[in-house]
């Protein structure tokens, strides 16, 4: 006989419309009520997920800990998800996803002695194709999600890039499919039959999952009473079971031969979430990188006798992980909540800085820096050798330094660009900033030295001392060993970008507008681009927005002109373009560095009008190419879309 599993749960939005501190007492009331129902009704079951919700509850109500543990151990209160918060799975790094489980599963194992086995991503806005491998390696058996799919069956094996499979259930009617059942038995029966017919269309086995819960929803006390009465009817069409996700999956496995394998990438549902509050996303990535660096150097420093800063870095991870809750890093939170996000970022960065400073101080104290000149130690935390720009400031208290050079540990001069910020009356250097090219081994360092009154042997062969063709064409050329590009001083756009090794032109000659700022009218919201949120949307909404400069209500930076600057040096050649008008203030820097196959573009924008969206356009000459995008712990070729 078919079995319809009613899965009571509550969805805890850790922070979105209210702050973290304001939401906790709201959530506490739900857990207290759930424990009361579980204690009084031996047939009732319930599910909870995020440790950022459960851990503070157990601390706030120690008198309920025994009851909580009793319900967990009996299997009637199932802990699902195993994350610190229900995080985004696309914007965050793979390491952050792992740390969510280290915090979440780690807490449940230490504090309650349980190993969470059911993944619970019921409100996440997208699911990268590495999740099957990540979940299995983190000890999960099942994966349950709601949004971003449109499949013929709800139950399947989801296969990741490497071939790893995990038993998965897609909630075809969202995580509240059984919510709102009538309080009278006759109405309840009709409601259950209707939900059964809806879910049966998608079921791969005789088991159907009907999640019952919403944001901060309370238990429904009549569930078991009505279910028991229903099951006593010998003519019933199916059984009603008030259970847990784990019990549902166990039933599905009894008919696993009916399950198909799906290799889809479930992305995205709310496109606006990938651009809303971009500063928060940028800060998240910067903190993820800083945490990685801090942990690398802490490991080396501790191994070499320094103090272990692991506990300090654990404290820094917590606010970063909390900020990765799907609503927050998606950017859909209220302004007062966003202020909280910024405070947590600052808190994490302060802790990271303390750890980094201590670890690097330990390591520099062990490095031999004897020799002539001022020693500069450049560290590389990555696991491959790297050549890139490095910068430092030096100062002299004598009046006899008129030039400087930077040498590596072998005594060879390296590309150097010197900016003298202050001189003594006789012209000697008092203070200067240095930009030089450094090469470091994997997870290692190199000692460079600033030599005084020494001329750098290396000169930039592409430095001419003049602005190419400006007198005639108002254009300038930035060039190094690998790349040659042309910029238009009037529009601020890149008009040509040539890879010198192959001669390939990457800018579309029919639209030579690389790095063009475009402003479109946008009456959407934080969730969606160009339209308001469609209620509790759970199907993907891929909207493609091609560049159309003739469209009404579209403006671009090339229309207005601006001021420009152009500079050449031994290390960096830079073009700067600025605009300041009634609608916005915009500055962009385009840079090439000696020996680097990279065009570096740094732009800043201050908007002054409402209901608009900005994007930067790069019309390319690439035809028939593929779109390969980075995902956590992998890369994936995706079809054209936005």
Describe the structure.
This protein has 642 residues and is α+β, with helices and mostly antiparallel strands. It contains 13 helices and 29 strands. The strands form 9 sheets. Strands 4-5-7-6-10 form a 5-stranded mixed β-sheet. A 4-stranded antiparallel β-sheet has the order 17-18-19-20. A hairpin with a 5-residue loop joins strand 25 (584-593) and strand 26. The longest helix is centred in the middle third of the chain and has 30 residues, at 335-364. The radius of gyration is 30 Å and the shape is globular. The mean pLDDT is 94.
Which key features would you list for this structure?
642 residues, alpha+beta, five-stranded mixed sheet, four-stranded antiparallel sheet, 29 strands, 27% strand
Main β-sheet description = 5 strands, mixed
Shape: globular
How much helicity do the residues have? Answer: 25-40%
- Quote the average pLDDT: 94
Helix count equals: 13
Task: Note the gap between the termini.
Answer: 44 Å
What class would the helix/strand composition place it in?
A: alpha+beta
Oligomerization status of the protein chains: single chain
Number of strands: 29
Low-confidence runs: none
**Using only CA atoms, what is the Rg?**
30 Å
Strand content: 25-35%
Strand arrangement across the biggest beta sheet: 4-5-7-6-10
